[in-house]
Amino acid sequence: MFKIAVLASGSGSNLQSIIDNIENGFLDCKIDMIVGSKEGIYALERGKKNNIDTFVISRKEYGQGTSDKILELAREREIDLIVLAGYLSILDGELLKEYKDRIINIHPSLIPSFCGDKMYGLNVHKAAINKGVKVSGCTVHFVNDEVDGGEIILQEAVPVHFEDTPEELQKRVLVKEHKLLPLAIKYISEGKIEIKSGRVNILK
Ligand code: GRF
């Protein structure tokens, strides 16, 4: 069974979309563990409700050793893929090497727009609205040592309306996120992803 770890920092609606897509048979894999970046986040509740092992690995407690601690757990549990679903901490070190091409993230914009430093949560949607772009969307990409810089796996667009508030745009993008992240996991778990010269090819 293909084993995934989901890392989260917030409400975990993307985590829920993975849980749902395993339950409805779209995904043939198992969420082996959930790692939260702090206590009290709703993503951990979702995990507990679904009998998934949950851990809290916080920067506050582990500091520079945060990624190493995650790696230790991932190794121990023989995790195949690490999925960042609203995980706010930046990963580094040996974890990125050992799990190269096996860590993915979902970002709520069309990369390379509105990504990188400080671009998380509503900031992303505020920036898109302030720029006046007519489309935004979401991106699933591999994680490397550059923030939001890994190879792009999938993208999906949504319209941006003139009257949109950041919250409204966020809601519209999230609907797409909840489809895109499970789809990326499906392709990876089925071995359908090939990386060539910094680009992803999805095999038919
Ligand atoms: C999503 O917008 C995701 O793209 C970003 O963080 C948000 C997490 O939302 N990386 P949730 O916790 O999955 O509801």
From TrEMBL:
Feature type site, description Raises pKa of active site His: 148
Binding annotation for N(1)-(5-phospho-beta-D-ribosyl)glycinamide: 12-14
Entries under Gene3D superfamilies matching the protein: Formyl transferase, N-terminal domain
Membrane-spanning segments: none
EC number: 2.1.2.2
Binding site for (6R)-10-formyltetrahydrofolate: 59, 105
A Pfam family reported for this protein in Swiss-Prot or TrEMBL: Formyl_trans_N
Enzyme class: transferase
InterPro entries xref list: Formyl_transf_N (IPR002376), Formyl_transf_N_sf (IPR036477), GART (IPR004607), GART_AS (IPR001555)
Catalytic residues, chain numbering: 107
Domain of life per record: Bacteria
Catalytic activity: N(1)-(5-phospho-beta-D-ribosyl)glycinamide + (6R)-10-formyltetrahydrofolate = N(2)-formyl-N(1)-(5-phospho-beta-D-ribosyl)glycinamide + (6S)-5,6,7,8-tetrahydrofolate + H(+)
Pathway info: Purine metabolism; IMP biosynthesis via de novo pathway; N(2)-formyl-N(1)-(5-phospho-D-ribosyl)glycinamide from N(1)-(5-phospho-D-ribosyl)glycinamide (10-formyl THF route): step 1/1
Purpose of the protein: Catalyzes the transfer of a formyl group from 10-formyltetrahydrofolate to 5-phospho-ribosyl-glycinamide (GAR), producing 5-phospho-ribosyl-N-formylglycinamide (FGAR) and tetrahydrofolate.
Family: Belongs to the GART family.
Name of the protein in question: Phosphoribosylglycinamide formyltransferase
Organism: Clostridium sardiniense
Lineage: Bacteria, Bacillati, Bacillota, Clostridia, Eubacteriales
